[in-house]
Write a structure and sequence with these properties.
about 180 residues; alpha+beta; 3-stranded antiparallel beta sheet; 3-stranded mixed beta sheet; 6 strands; globular
């Protein structure tokens, strides 16, 4: 699903609080398949320009193949700096901060240094080998959902250990995140 971007100001504080409550609930609910509220973005730009800035990152080129990239989803964006070389390729010109709730209900803030963004045009490009960690993110999220369903919270501090387990399971032949 494509993201919808809403512009809220301090006059919309009650709506902002309600959206934050929904986002926090969905972040820790194992039954939530897709999140209604993915991120809270700070920007001085108008909403159309923010939309274009996010849209530039929704296509992932793997070789010559185009893929839809849910980079805005907190279950994905949280892992990008550690798992993929594309973090610096995200073109987020004009966005000052990206905020979301992690799977354990904690608030995460990513300050974006506009000068550090490598501008790559319209699409993020990776090769087949760089796709493996991206695939592992889906398995990681399946593991976290399984833990949450059993009543166990996965602290963000355990992210790398769980990601390593997900990558090992894939390399040992786990075919689908549904098999976790």
């Amino acid at each position: 699903q494509a993201p919808i971007i809403l512009r809220l100001t301090l006059r919309d504080f009650d709506a902002l609080c309600a959206l934050a409550g929904l986002a926090k609930h969905e972040s820790t609910d194992a039954c939530t398949k897709t999140r209604s509220v993915c991120a809270f973005i700070q920007s001085a730009m108008n909403i159309e320009r923010v939309g274009l800035s996010v849209e530039r990152n929704l296509t992932l080129m793997v070789g010559t193949q185009r893929r839809y990239f849910r980079m805005f989803d907190p279950r994905v964006v949280h892992h990008l700096p550690a798992q993929l070389p594309i973090g610096p390729q995200l073109d987020l010109r004009g966005i000052a901060g990206w905020n979301y709730f992690t799977w354990d209900g904690e608030w995460a803030h990513v300050a974006i240094n506009e000068n550090s963004n490598r501008l790559t045009g319209c699409h993020i490009r990776i090769n087949e080998e760089e796709l493996f960690p991206l695939t592992a993110i889906e398995y990681f999220n399946a593991i976290v959902r399984a833990f949450i369903k059993s009543g166990v919270t996965c602290p963000v501090a355990e992210t790398q250990r769980i990601m390593d387990m997900a990558q090992a399971a894939i390399s040992y032949g786990l075919k689908s995140p549904n098999d976790v």
